[in-house]
Design brief:
The chain has 3 helices and 6 strands. With 122 residues, the protein is of the alpha+beta class. It has a 6-stranded mixed sheet with strand order 1-2-3-6-4-5, with helices on one face.
């Protein structure tokens, strides 16, 4: 049986809500919904993927190991902008991806949140 490793960001919300930044079991890493500050949708999207990349790299993985992304946005009409940034990171990796519109996120200034699943391969 694979050991479970909870990965913390140090956020006080982790204990208040009861979640981890990421969880690693065996060769799989699941990253919680990730947001990033930014004045534009593109800046937020890029910031999110860069944050995920950092967490993955700190835990023996990288974007090349991402097999799924789940994209939540408050404005699906902007899907092409989201897709362009996503594609700039994942164009050759091509993880399975879901993009859905939701009514709102926890912070009204945040318009996108992304979850990631990575499977570390040799």
């Amino acid at each position: 049986m694979s050991k479970r490793e909870n990965i913390s960001s140090g956020s006080p919300w982790e204990d208040k809500i009861g979640y981890s930044r990421a969880v690693k079991i065996g060769n799989t890493i699941e990253l919680s919904g990730t947001t990033a500050p930014g004045d534009t949708l593109e800046a937020q999207t890029k910031g999110i993927i860069e944050l995920a990349k950092k967490v993955l790299e700190e835990n023996g993985s990288g974007l090349q190991d991402v097999v799924r992304t789940r994209i939540f946005t408050t404005d699906i009409s902007q899907w092409e902008k989201i897709g362009k940034v996503h594609g700039s990171f994942f164009g050759t990796i091509k993880p399975v991806t879901t993009m859905v519109e939701i009514s709102k996120l926890i912070d009204p200034d945040i318009v996108i949140e992304i979850e990631f699943t990575a499977v570390i391969t040799d």
